[in-house]
């Protein structure tokens, strides 16, 4: 039995689970997180918050990130085992699955960062276009004034 912490990542930051919960394995911790998500999403919606960007970070007793469970994953697909039953795997294979889980978390974070970068780039392009439009209008107004003199 292992102590797992279910930190809640929201748009406002990370809400740390200081008490945690003892589960027999990571698979059980994942399924417990999936069962909790619908009620949390409903509560967030009632409070006027957007749960789409929220996720559980499942961490062990040393605060090492083991798995990230995005709320949207629970809504878009039925929770099921993310990996084969650990008892049937060799330690080497289990280590590979653990690495895959960490890579999935890293990819999820990279995707979120890319979305944020695209949003910022889009805002910058809009500002540049507005500036170009203002400069063109100013130049045309200056040209008209100069021509009428």
TrEMBL record:
Pfam families: DUF6894. Residues 3-71 form the DUF6894 domain. Keywords: Coiled coil. InterPro entries: DUF6894 (IPR054189). Residues 104-131 form a coiled coil. This is DUF6894 domain-containing protein.
